Amino acid sequence: MYEQPILQVKHLNKQFGSGCRHCTNAAQANLIKNYCPKCGTIYACRNVSFDVYPGEILGIVGESGSGKSTVMHCLYFDKEVTAGEVYLHDPEFEGLNLLTISSQKKRYVRNHKYGMVYQNPVKGLKMNFSSIGNIAEKLIAAGNRNVTAMQRIGQDLLETVHIPLFRMKEAPGNFSGGMQQRVQIAKALSNQPPILFLDEVTTGLDLSVQAAVIDLIKLIQRELQISMIVVSHDLAVIRMLADRTLVMLNGEVIEQGLTDQILEDPAHSYTQQLVYSML
Ligand SMILES: Nc1ncnc2c1ncn2[C@@H]1O[C@H](COP(=O)(O)OP(=O)(O)OP(=O)(O)O)[C@@H](O)[C@H]1O
Questions:
Q1: What is the ipTM metric for this complex?
Q2: Looking at CB atoms within 10 Å, which of 82, 125, 204, 227 has the fewest?
Q3: What processes in GO biological process is this protein linked to (predicted)?
Q4: Which DSSP state fits 165?
Q5: 79 contact partners, CB below 8 Å, separation of at least 6
Q6: How far is the CA of 45 from the centre of ligand 1 (A)?
Q7: Angle CA 13–16–22, to nearest 5
Q8: What are the chain's domains?
């Protein structure tokens, strides 16, 4: 279906703690879930590898603590990795491991190549700026200076995410949870990034608002052909959105494949439980 991945993630590892003799052996057989009982080191993600193809939505599903957000935050440079490689197929970064580039270049990648929508809108938005001001902030960070152009881009984006323009000067702090997520999505899209990260964006919203946010994500993917990585503990959300899915447990990817295939024929016993609990 696709030629070349736009993003390649290889052997991503993130641990909290320095490890000990008990847990640093190759098999890590002494861990309890993702945790070393001797030294307390947490292996939040272990040897996680996957590709993301142009225009696809890749889902990452797993229970709380399985390491989904850690993967996403490492990719977005919010957390420093312990080890791993990430390659973006883009003329500016071809062949460079993004995890080892300078912090200035990382900032450039965040501002131009990636968009992020956090579970908690407080992390992604300035709650005391206006909604259009939030979008302008991201545009300015990417080097834009033309106020008229930024206003036009901001208004177009707010319309795309169905925020009425008469509310564009209002701070997102006044908005409902679903509206805040829409403003975050608009902000994340402002520099037309080829890759969008969405971390539990529907969690905590009521069902009808969840459905509207999911429809919006699907619309954006259809119209902009952007690649997305969507993290959720909820397989029903992943089923609605993702073309392919990774299943994580205790920091490891235990299964990956086409979402339909995983739902129809889950191989791992944990995935089977997830699928059956959805029925
Ligand atoms: N800053 C930190 N310090 C220590 N441990 C951490 C830190 N951040 C995450 N962890 C641990 O890493 C593991 C993975 O956490 P992570 O947040 O990635 O899981 P998750 O699957 O996204 O779960 P949730 O959906 O509940 O956030 C957990 O055991 C968590 O306690």
A1: 0.97
A2: 204
A3: organic phosphonate catabolic process
A4: G
A5: 14, 70, 73
A6: 9
A7: 85
A8: 1-101+229-279 (3.40.50.300)
